[in-house]
Specification:
The protein contains 7 helices and 2 strands, in the order αββαααααα. By secondary structure, it is mainly alpha-helical. It has a two-stranded antiparallel sheet with strand order 1-2. The chain starts with a helix and ends in a 5-residue tail after the last helix.
Length: about 170
């Protein structure tokens, strides 16, 4: 027997079998990739539909719920809508969401019993100014003219409207 002919034939047959098997498995991958692409496209379409519904959604609060601790009516907080409008996680009653209020001013308001968006929305601009003045000269430069209105939008869940307005404000003015 001539081994010089048999060895290349055996190698050729083995390569042909391996090539066939690899080709067959890659066609399955192509089908799988196509299936994943269809799922991705469907999810993209669903996301676009949700975003358009969110944009068309009326800015009125959905419903009011009674707080178990008080007789005051509290509006529900929807963190998902807030995150959709601002692109970041928003914590309920975080006064720093109001343009012009930072961590130190928030602490100042908390020390005066103003701890929620509802509390701030019910404050007059004069009351906000008094709170700032109680912190000393460093706080007197701040202008709280829009803070109660911004807090009201946050409290009512009007996130898109608030975010748009804040884009026009500089330091709360």
């Amino acid at each position: 027997m001539n081994w010089c002919l048999i060895i290349p034939i055996i190698v050729g047959v083995i390569c042909a079998i391996l090539g066939y098997l690899l080709g067959k498995s890659s066609s399955n991958n192509t089908d799988e990739i196509g299936a994943w692409q269809k799922k991705y496209d469907k999810l993209e379409a669903d996301l676009s539909e949700c975003r358009s519904k969110l944009a068309l959604k009326p800015s009125e609060p959905i419903a009011a719920t009674e707080s178990p601790n008080t007789s005051a009516t509290l509006l529900p907080f929807d963190a998902t809508l807030a995150k959709a409008a601002f692109g970041k996680k928003i914590k309920q009653d975080d006064l720093k969401i109001v343009e012009g209020i930072g961590p130190k001013i928030e602490l100042l308001f908390h020390s005066k019993g103003i701890k929620t968006w509802k509390d701030l929305s019910e404050c007059s601009v004069q009351k906000c100014t008094e709170v700032l003045q109680s912190g000393g000269k460093a706080y007197e430069i701040h202008k709280p003219g829009t803070w109660p209105e911004q807090a009201k939008l946050a409290y009512e869940g009007k996130w898109t409207e608030l975010h748009k307005w804040q884009g026009e404000l500089k330091g709360g003015k």
